[in-house]
């Protein structure tokens, strides 16, 4: 049977395209910090520039940013290779599609980190800031007085607090689905390895 690479890479390309179109719209139609509410106070677009990893995590300084961007490039190359390997060896389609989601998300944010600094932010190559915009503080309130001291009695809490983009969402969905369905995804390969029809050559 001929191995086809088309569908997973089409899915990945569409996610990267959609991610970049959303970021471009936000960058050209909103100012940093602006909010556009579409679910009241529970869901909104909030234009944010993220200097680090997914959901706002970051490494300090220009050296940390450069290291993070170079790591992302190496990681994307590795994920792309893994995706081709999974397709070529006919792994579970669900696994292949979820790796394609992770690949697309990582590539989408690499475009920001590598090029946006030069194109839009007056920064050097590999120092671009990632555009984030989706914010869903669905649950909001304050910690009760009996809550552990690290939270602080009366301190405000929000869920979900991080601001993210489509690329972050693609990575998260891909990773979560692989964790949930790992037994199903890898069952076929385990059965092939332990198949009673496999020949064992003894000297």
Structure in words:
It is a single chain. The protein is mainly α and 203 residues long. Helices cover 52% and strands 12% of the residues. It has one domain. It has five helices and five strands; from the N terminus they run αββααβββαα. The strands form two sheets. Strands 1-2-3 form a three-stranded antiparallel β-sheet. A two-stranded antiparallel sheet has the order 4-5. Helix 3 runs antiparallel to helix 4 (166-180). The longest helix has 28 residues, at 61-88.
The topology string of helices and strands comes to HEEHHEEEHH
Shape: globular
* Number of spatially distinct domains: 1
**Main sheet?**
3 strands, antiparallel
- Walk across the major sheet and give the strand order: 1-2-3
Mean pLDDT: 83
Distance between the termini: 34 Å
The helical percent reads: 40-55%
| Count of individual helical segments | 5
Number of strands: 5
Low-confidence stretches: 198-203
| Radius of gyration from CA coordinates | 21 Å
Structural class: mainly alpha
Q: DSSP strand (E) fraction?
A: 5-15%
């Amino acid at each position: 049977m001929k191995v086809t690479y088309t569908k997973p890479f089409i899915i990945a390309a569409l996610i990267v395209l959609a991610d970049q179109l959303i970021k471009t719209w936000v960058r050209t139609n909103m100012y940093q910090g602006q909010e556009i509410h579409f679910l009241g106070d529970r869901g909104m677009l909030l234009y944010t520039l993220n200097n680090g990893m997914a959901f706002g995590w970051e490494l300090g300084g220009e050296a940390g940013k450069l290291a993070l961007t170079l790591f992302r490039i190496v990681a994307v190359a590795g994920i792309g290779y893994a995706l081709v390997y999974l397709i070529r060896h006919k792994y579970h389609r669900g696994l292949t599609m979820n790796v394609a989601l992770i690949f697309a998300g990582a590539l989408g944010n690499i475009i920001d980190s590598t090029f946006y600094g030069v194109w839009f932010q007056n920064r050097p190559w590999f120092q671009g800031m990632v555009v984030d915009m989706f914010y869903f503080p669905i649950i909001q309130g304050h910690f009760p007085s009996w809550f552990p001291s690290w939270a602080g009695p009366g301190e405000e809490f929000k869920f979900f607090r991080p601001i993210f983009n489509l690329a972050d969402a693609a990575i998260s969905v891909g990773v979560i689905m692989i964790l949930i369905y790992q037994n199903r995804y890898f069952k076929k390969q385990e059965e092939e390895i332990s198949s009673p029809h496999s020949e064992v050559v003894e000297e």
